[in-house]
Design goal:
With 556 residues, this protein is α/β, with parallel strands linked by helices. It is built from 20 helices and 19 strands. The longest helix has 14 residues.
Length: 556
Amino acid sequence: MYLESDFSTAWQQLRNAQIDCQQALQLLRDEEGTLNLSLLDSEVSQRFFQLFPDEQDLPPVVPLLLWQSCYYLGSPVTLTPNLVQQIRDRTLTQVKILPITEKSYRCWHHTRDFDVNRIGAAPLVNPLTGKHDAEDISETTELFLSKAEDQIERIKTIIASALRNRASDVHLEPTAEGLQVRYRIDGVLRKVTKLPLEISRRVIVALKVMASMDIADSRRPHDGRIGEQYITGDGKALGMDMRVSTLPCVCGEKAVIRLLPRKNPFSIVDKLGFSPKVLPTYKTWLEQPQGLIIFTGPTGSGKTSTLYTSLQAIAKENVNVVTVEDPVEYVLPHITQTQVNEAAGMTFAAGLRAILRQDPDIIMLGEVRDHETAETAVRAALTGHLVFTTLHTNDAIGAIPRLHDIGPDPSLISDALLGVVAQRLVRRICPHCKESYPATDADFKRLGILPSQIKAEPVLHRGRGCSQCLESGYMGREAVVELLELDEPIREIIHSGNMIDLHRYLRETDFMSFRQAAIEKVFAGITSIDEVFRVLPRSALRVNSSRPERLPKVMA
C-alpha cells in the first residue's frame, strides 16, 4: 500500500469532525484485532512516547488515538491493572486498552524503527520474543515501501529487503501493470512485489541517476555501478558495490542490480563442498609451486567463491599473489588485484604479460578467452608460477577439448595442467523443516544405482517448507564438485588428443564425477534428488548402459 501526501489519518479525520471516536477505532482496528497501519498518526505516537524516555519500561502498546483526555492503546498481550494505572499516572489521562494481533504489533514496531534513508541488512527481530523474525518478503517489503516518499528511498528499501533475505540480484521488470520486483535467492528468482505503473519509469530513472548512467538514452543497454554503505546486524557500516545493468524491452527498461557486499563472505576451503574423497587432492594442488588449475562452470556456479577462498588460503606474507579480473568483485587482503579495461588496452593477455614482470608466485587469471591468453597462461605455469583460471564448459572433461580449440600445444597443456575443477551450486535442505523418508525404487532408478550400493539405511531427505526458508524447503547453497586430476595415462591421452580414450579411461577409474558427487550429497541429507536434477546438466547424470553403473559405496 502506498500513502499519498494528502491522505488523512483516522485521528485527523476525528479532529476534523468527519467521523466520531467509535468510527475512528473501527477504521484503525477490525474485529479480529488487525491494525490498518496506514491510518495511524505519527503525532499521536510522538506525544505518547515522549512521556516515556525509557521505552523499556513500557509494555508492548501501540498508540491508536488521543481523544478527550484518553489514550486508546492497542496491545497484543493482556496488561495488568497495575501496568495500566502506571500509564495513566505518567500520561495524566484515561487509558483504554484494545486487543490487537501479534502480527499487527510486529509490523508496527518494524515500520516505526525503519529508516528509508539507509540500507540495513540486519534481520528483523521479534519485539515480543527478542528472536529473529522470519519475515514474509512481499508483505514486509510493501509495508516498508509505504514509508518511502521518493524513488531513491524506494530503491534503498528494495535493496535493504534483498540483503536481509540473502538475495544476490534484484530484478526490476517493466510490465503493462507496473514494475515487477524479483529477488534471486539461493539461485532461484522469487516474486516480491509490483510497483504501481505511474511510478515505474521514475524508479528506473532514479536508479540510472544513482548508477551515473545517461538517463536521456533509453534505447540502448547501459552498465553502471553504485557504491553504498549498509548496516549489518551488529550495527557496523560496511561498503557495498552494486553492478547495475539496464536493457530496453517492450514495456520500458529492465534493470538488474547485482549486490556485492564488501564484507568478505569466504570462509575456508574445507567448507566449499568438496567431497572428503577429493578434498585432500585439491589441497595438494594448492601446495604446488607451479602448474595450471582450471575452474569450469556457467555463470553463477560459484567459481569466483572457490577461486577467492583458495587464493586466501595460500596468500601468505612470503608469496606474491596477483590477479587480473573482469570485474574485481571482492577486494581481498594481501592480494594485488587488477581489473580489465579493454578501452585502455588492459586486456587479459596484456594484464597477464604485465603480471609476469611483477615477480609473481601465484597468478589468478579471470578467464581464458583467446589463443594469446591461453598460451601465456600455460607458459607461465611451466616457468615456476601457480596459475588459476576459468573456462566456460559443462564439465571438467570438457576443459581439455576447449583448450585444444583455443590453441596451445597439447604437449604444453599436458605438462602444465595440474587438474580441472567443475562445479555447480545446489540448494541445501532447510535445517528448520528437514524431514526424512525412505528411498523408493523410483528414486534409485532415477539416480541409476542399486540399493546395495548404499552402505547405510537408504533414507532421503526433503524440506517441508517453513517461514525460515520462505516456504521453499531450502536454505543456502553448496557446491557439487567434479574433480579431474591429471595422472600419467591422462597426460598421454591429452597429448594424443583422443577424447574417446579419455572418457573410457575415466569410466574404468575412480573418477569423482558430478553424478557420484551429487549422489553422495543426496544420501548425506544435504540436498534433494529434485534439486540435483534441476541444477546439473543431464549429460552428467546419464547412465551409459542399461545396467546401473559401478559406483563405490557412497554412504558410511
